[in-house]
Amino acid sequence: MHKIVKIHAVYREWPVMLVAQTETGDLVELSLKEVKERGYEFDEQAWKELVEEYRVFNHSYQ
After folding, report:
1. pLDDT 10s digits, 28-53
2. Which domain holds residue 41?
3. Residue 57 φ then ψ, to 5°
4. What is the pLDDT of residues 8-29, one digit of tens each?
């Protein structure tokens, strides 16, 4: 399983895309669906960034 340790950008298009850094230092661009399909997990700090700073799950699409 791969671990995401840092969120660098969130694109609020559909699908929502992330630019993230893995524990090995690789940068990846993934949709939330691809995160799940490819077996990525978020470490605690990256998850906190995604939810609290980027507010991915609180965004209103109008």
Report:
1. 999 999 999 999 999 999 999 998 88
2. 2-58
3. -90, 0
4. 999 988 888 999 999 999 999 9
Which alpha helices (DSSP H) does the chain contain, by range? Answer: 32-37, 44-48
Residue 61 tokens, joined: 């699409």
Beta bridge partners of 20: 7, 28
Backbone angles phi, psi at 29, to 5 degrees: -115, 115
Q: Which residue type, as a one-letter code, is found at position 17?
A: M
Distance CA(38)–CA(3), nearest Å, equals: 11
Nearest CA to 1 out of 39, 28, 43, 30 is that of 39
